[in-house]
Amino acid sequence: MPPRFAIIGAGKMGTALARLLSQAGYGFIGAASRSLDSARRACELVGAGEPTTDAPALTRSAGLVLLTVPDDAIARVCRELAAASAFGEGAVVAHCSGAYDSTVLAPARACGASVGSMHPLQTLATVEQAMQALPGSFCCVEGDPHAASVLSDVARAFGGRVMSIPTEGKPLYHAAAVTACNFLVALVEAALKLDEAAGIGRAEALQSLMPLVRATVDNIERVGIPQCLTGPIARGDVETTGRHLRAIGQAAPDLLPLYRALGLQTVEVALAKGTLPRERAAELREMLGQ
Ligand SMILES: NC(=O)c1ccc[n+]([C@@H]2O[C@H](COP(=O)([O-])OP(=O)(O)OC[C@H]3O[C@@H](n4cnc5c(N)ncnc54)[C@H](OP(=O)(O)O)[C@@H]3O)[C@@H](O)[C@H]2O)c1
């Protein structure tokens, strides 16, 4: 029998999970949030549950409490609820942060709860998009054995694919997620700035770059790294890279450190691919590392 659950923090993650878990047969007690409006919206979307700003009123009877507040609020909210003895004996208390691990929830253990974290490895921009994207996403689970087992069931219930990591691995795991997701956004922004400096309008630049970005992402999956790497560094075109550095230095010097750092990382991939001769790699490293 799935545990009855409450969400504290009725934002994108909390509201989407409430709806998906309710659809999967988990009894929804209700949503507590900072504002009653957010809690109401969540309960309306689920079609069940009590909306409130009084979290302890919900958590006392919950077998599963999901603290889906912003990362920086998780420790404080958990501490306050534990101090009010608002977690039931045997309950599972969890958060969905990628950066923090379950130790931030340690105060809940004093109430007899077990603690864990379940981080869906996904980017959620709105509640609606979150409801579509969460099924099929990998979910990184860690924590006390009982909590980890319940959270693995939770992830599978909404179609998530469970992956486990050691608790101490979370900062690096999350740095990897930020690198692949947020830095890709920042990288495309840098490419747009270079196009704009070349005289191409921003809208046209974005339109023209998207097929390239999509094909690159597809090739990473289909062809694999390092074989999918193309371009001047993979070919060992030292002079082309020199031309780039001179042009960026003149038109957009603030982007030079980024270009140099990623160029050096690209040299490593090209060497692994086997298309970059060692002496060219040394020239490129010297040119990019200056
Ligand atoms: N969004 C993503 O892409 C994503 C992906 C993976 C994991 N996560 C994780 O999911 C968690 C929630 O993120 P989110 O994107 O859903 O954030 P969000 O949309 O900003 O929602 C957070 C909600 O928490 C509520 N809140 C803030 N402080 C509170 C408090 N002290 N007590 C009760 N409620 C409080 C806010 O309330 P009001 O609306 O009532 O003001 C807000 O609705 C975070 O741990 C985040 O790291 C997010």
Q: Could you explain how this protein is built, in words?
A:
It is a single chain. This protein is an alpha/beta fold. The chain is 54% helix and 13% strand. It contains 13 helices and 8 strands. It has an 8-stranded mixed β-sheet with strand order 3-2-1-4-5-6-7-8, sandwiched between helices. Helix 2 (36-46) links the parallel strand 2 and strand 3 (50-52). Helix 1 packs parallel to helix 2 and helix 11 (238-251) runs parallel beside helix 13. It is elongated, with a radius of gyration of 24 Å. The mean pLDDT is 97. It binds NADP nicotinamide-adenine-dinucleotide phosphate. NADP nicotinamide-adenine-dinucleotide phosphate (NAP) binds at residues 8-14, 33-35, 38, 68-71, 73, 77, 95-98, 119-120, 122-124. The site of NADP nicotinamide-adenine-dinucleotide phosphate has 26 residues, from helix 1, helix 4 and strand 6.
Low-confidence stretches: none
Can you list the strand order of the major beta sheet? 3-2-1-4-5-6-7-8
Radius of gyration: 24 Å
- Binned, the helix content reads 40-55%
Which structural class fits the helix and strand makeup? alpha/beta
Tell me the overall shape: elongated
Please work out how many helical segments DSSP would assign.
13
Tally of extended strands? 8
Summarize the main sheet.
8 strands, mixed
β-strand percent reads 5-15%
User: Secondary-structure element sequence?
Assistant: EHEHEHEHEEHEHEHHHHHHH
Q: Which ligands appear in the coordinates?
A: NADP nicotinamide-adenine-dinucleotide phosphate
Give the distance, in angstroms, between the N- and C-terminal Cα atoms. 62 Å
Q: Give the rounded overall mean pLDDT.
A: 97
